[in-house]
Each structure stands twice: as structure tokens, then as C-alpha cells.
Amino acid sequence: MTTIAHLNARSTPQAVRMAAREGSLAGPTSGLANGYVQVNLVILPESQAAGFLRFCQANPKPCPLLAVSEPGSRSCTLLGRDLDIATDVPAYRIYRHGKVSDTRHDVSDDWRDDLVTFALGCSFTFEHALIEAGLSIRHIEESRNVPMFNTSVPLTSAGGFGGNLVVSMRPFAAADAIRAIQITTRYPQVHGSPVHLGDPSLIGISDLSTPDYGDSVSVGKDEIPVFWACGVTPQQVLIDSGVEFAITHSPGHMLVTDIPDSSLALF
Amino acid sequence: MTTIAHLNARSTPQAVRMAAREGSLAGPTSGLANGYVQVNLVILPESQAAGFLRFCQANPKPCPLLAVSEPGSRSCTLLGRDLDIATDVPAYRIYRHGKVSDTRHDVSDDWRDDLVTFALGCSFTFEHALIEAGLSIRHIEESRNVPMFNTSVPLTSAGGFGGNLVVSMRPFAAADAIRAIQITTRYPQVHGSPVHLGDPSLIGISDLSTPDYGDSVSVGKDEIPVFWACGVTPQQVLIDSGVEFAITHSPGHMLVTDIPDSSLALF
Q1: Ramachandran area for residue B13 (φ above 0: left; ψ -120 to 50: alpha; else beta)
Q2: Do A197 and B182 touch (CB under 8 A)?
Q3: What is the pLDDT along chain B (267 residues), one digit of tens a residue?
Q4: I want to staple A232 with a disulfide (CB 3.0 to 4.6 A). Which of A62, A166, A215, B63 is the partner?
Q5: How far apart are CA A214 and CA B124, in angstroms?
Q6: Contact at 8 Å (CB) between B247 and B43?
Q7: Which residues in chain B are closer than 8 Å to A222, comparing Cβ atoms?
Q8: Alpha-carbon span B154 to A135, nearest angstrom
């Protein structure tokens, strides 16, 4: 149970998953196994899975689908070798009747033969690309979680799911904002290009200093807030839609896959 | 001398050049031979051409080089068949000692065996791409010239040339601004992505309603001004640098080439 001491940016995805499986990793995955795609998970009974798949298809910016498992399967070879969906995430949330009822480090006992897993891209991948391009990401500089906001932007309702878009915000000087748009455009499977920039009130955000999720970060007077569709959106949708049963990862506690970040770049 | 009546968006580049050569076209080329690259021209004696080439290389956003002619040559097969640099532009400017001394419709009599022609990309190409993507360009909507501004952004001095960047401005709603950044990124040879967006004062522009060149356009309160490097920059540089002799096209009176706009898209 000392594996956690050895986990860092250079760990393999397999090592991170094994540490979560063994219980030695129970914390967030940010900064671990750099260079590999980490994914948001939404796990639903088959009876709702077809509807949720249509919902993701209709809302690809907040819900970019990387993989969908076969019903009941705890493996997903598209995501990684020797991967167990029910054990390899450091922390899970269980939803009952539209409320978060539990947080677990293992959902083997909650597993059902009808569960379908949706793996959705996560902004960690494009943040790595931004950093490699020399851009500075404020919440990382300030050792905080990215600020996230509910918006007034309606999602496209489909399959019984709906709600409003949740966005993450990163402030940049104008030239860096332009560069960030170019770089994230290359990664449509991890939210892609921003959905808004500039005046937050135009998308229903009244105060940048009081995010609905995550932490606030400083925004310079010469900087422009840039807003990306956020992977918290589907979790909020599960709650808004009052789903009877669902499992997700716990925010920040992602499934680390064997997919190289670079393989998701369009060009 | 009635060719002009027949020129329109569907004219061939050859027909437009021939009309300029014959003298039946003396006006601007905007809206003619749509789908073909129109270029800014800078024509300099060989003694200054090597320096200007270094200057363009150091400042590719305002001075994106599409072609450089051999000294003394009035043709340029890279730009088009049966093309005469000294006659095929509807209007030229002649500079002497850093001042515009004349406007001509033909510079055959001013031609010299040591003149080198620089063809620089023009924003008409990316504007066509923006319109094809469904974006609305304000100055075209309002039947005006694009507003252009001197800025406080220094160019990289090279080869005896220097000065400040001149930009063009197009206002967009945020989502369209993001789309415009993506589209123009595909066209680095016609100024490429914007150099700035948002607060004009950060690049030394005090009032958007009083452009230094072109016309003012309306900017909605929910819109963001987006600024691109502008082909007027090299003309201003010729003046600032006090060149002894130079020829350029007259603003808006471009050389129409045989190069399809689409061939300049990076991807």
C-alpha cells in the first residue's frame, strides 16, 4: 500500500490505475501520468444508455465521447489494457434519484450486468497542449482547481436528458487567447475550441469571482476570460434529469487511459 | 473600352487584368473574379530589395510574401499567365523620397531594369472564407472599406525598414470571433490569425470610430473588435523609411492573380 509514494507525472497509466485498484491512490489524478488522456466517466443502466448516447451526440462540446462500453462490461480495450472500470478510478460518485448518495473508492459491489460506461474527454489533455505551447494557465499557476460556472446556455435536449451548459474559465492576454483558441481547436474530443470569450454576463455568469464549482482565480485587467464547455455538464445533467441510478467519477478523480494525449490532435 | 461593364464576381482573373491593361478598368478590384487571390504589390529597386525581403521575412503577419520577381521582370508566372506587372493593376502609387508623388494607371514609362516586385497576400482571401462559413463582415454589410488603424505595436526592423504595425478591424459576436480565428488561422499567407482582440487601447488605438485608413463601421455593444495585421503596413513602412523610389498598387486596386483562394488554405 505504498504505491502512491511512487506515483508522479512520469508514472505509467497502468501504474496509476493499479494504485487506484489496490486502494493506495484515493486522491485526484491531476499531474499523474502526464501525456496520457484522462477521462470523465458516466455509467448508466442500459435502459437509459441509448438516450444518453443521443444526448452526447447532440452536445459534443460538453460531452465529447471517446468510448462507450458494452452493457455489463467492466473492461474497455479502447481505453486501456487490463483496465477495470469498477476499481481503477480513485473515487466514484453514486447517484440515486437525481442526488449524489455516496462516494466510493470501488464500485464492484454496486456493479450491475446492465451498466453501460461512457468515457468523455477531459480538459487536462488540452491544458497539457497549452502548457507545451508556452502558455500559462492561471489556476495551475495559483495551485487551484479550474473555476467552473453554470450558464444560461441551453443544451440540446435529447434522450430524456437536458439542462444548461457548464463552462470552465481560463483568463489570457489577447494574443494568448488567440493562441489558446488555435490549440484547443485541434482537440475536439476534449471539449475543443472555446464556446465564449469576453463579457461573462452574455452567457449568464454574473460574477467571475464566485464560481459554481472549483476555485476562483485572479483575472488581470488586460486579460480576457475564455470559456470552454466543461465535463461537469453531464454530472449536472444527471442531477437535473433526476436519474434513478448512475455512477460517475468524483470530480478531479479521473480514469487514466493508455491513449496518448497527442493522438487526439486533429492536425 | 467597354470591358468594365462585363466585369463581375464571375470574371476570370485574366479578364480583369486585361481590362486594367487596356485602361477600361481603373477602379477597385473588390468583388471581381471571386475565388482568386488578389495581392498587394511593393516594387523596389534591387539595391533595396534584399533588405525589404529580410523585412518581410521578419514580419510575416503584415507582409506575407507570395512571390518575388526577378530584377527587371514584368512577368511572374507564380502569380499568373500573361501577366504584366506594369500594366495589369488598375491604379499604382509612385513614391519618391518617402512621399506618394503620383497615381498612375500604367507604370510602363516608370519601369526600370532593376525593379523587383514583391506580391503580398491580401485579406480579401480570408474574407471570402469567412463569408463562405456564414459569418457576416460588417464593412461589407455596410458597403464601406474596412477600418484600418495605426498601432503602437513595433515591427521587427530589418534591412533598413521598420515602423509600427497597421491593423484592420472586424467586429464579431464572441462565438463568431472564435470561428473567425479558426478560419483565418488556415490562411497564414493572407495575414493569418488575428494579432489582437478586445480592448483597442492595449495596441495604441484610442478611438475605433476614427480609423486612420478606410471607413468606420458600427460595433455592437455585445461585439468584440478583432484586429488583423494589414497590408497597408508595408506602404506606411515605405513612407516612414523615406525610400527614394518605389511603386505600389493604390489601396483597393489590387493585382488579381490566377491562384485559387482555396489553394492557400493550410488544412
Answers
A1: alpha
A2: no
A3: 444 558 999 999 999 999 999 999 999 999 999 999 999 999 999 999 999 999 999 999 999 999 999 999 999 999 999 999 999 999 999 999 999 999 999 999 999 999 999 999 999 999 999 999 999 999 999 999 999 999 999 999 999 999 999 999 999 999 999 999 999 999 999 999 999 999 999 999 999 999 999 999 999 999 999 999 999 999 999 999 999 999 999 999 999 999 999 999 999
A4: A166
A5: 44
A6: yes
A7: 199, 202
A8: 22
> Kind of pairing, strands A223-229 and A164-173?
antiparallel
Residues of B in contact with A200 (CB under 8 A): none
Q: Assess contact for A101 and A94: CB atoms under 8 A.
A: yes
- Residue B255 forms beta bridges with which residues? B39
Nearest to A211 by CA among A153, A251, A253, A169: A169
Say if residues B154 and B68 touch (Cβ distance below 8 Å).
no
How far, in Å, CA of B254 to CA of B27, rounded? 10
Q: For A131, how many CA atoms within 13 A lie in the half-sphere containing its CB?
A: 15
Q: Which positions in chain A touch B178 (Cβ < 8 Å)? A: 181, 193-197
CA-nearest of B83, B65, B69 to B116 is: B69
Whether residue B199 and residue A177 make contact (CB cut-off 8 A), yes or no, is: no
Choose from A191, A197, A202 for mutation: most chain B CBs within 10 A: A197
Residue A202 and residue B222: Cβ atoms within 8 Å? yes
Write out the three cell numbers for B46.
534591387
Cross-strand partners of A119: A41, A67
What is the pTM (predicted TM-score) of this model? 0.91
Shortest alpha-carbon distance between residue A111 and chain B (Å): 42
Q: Which residues 151-190 on chain A approach chain B with CB closer than 8 angstroms?
A: 174-175, 177-178, 181-182, 185
Q: Which residue among B182, B196, B198 places its CB closest to the CB of A185?
A: B182
Beta bridge partners of A170: A226
Residue B220, chain A, CB below 8 Å: the answer is no
Residue B197 touches chain A, beta carbons under 8 Å: yes
**CA distance to partner chain B, nearest, from residue A251 (Å):** 28
**Amino acid, single-letter form, for residue B84:** D
User: Scanning every residue of chain A, which has its alpha carbon at the shortest distance from the alpha carbon of B199?
Assistant: A222
Give all domains of chain B, ordered by start, each with its CATH number.
Answer: 3-122+241-260 (3.40.1640.10), 124-234 (3.30.2040.10)
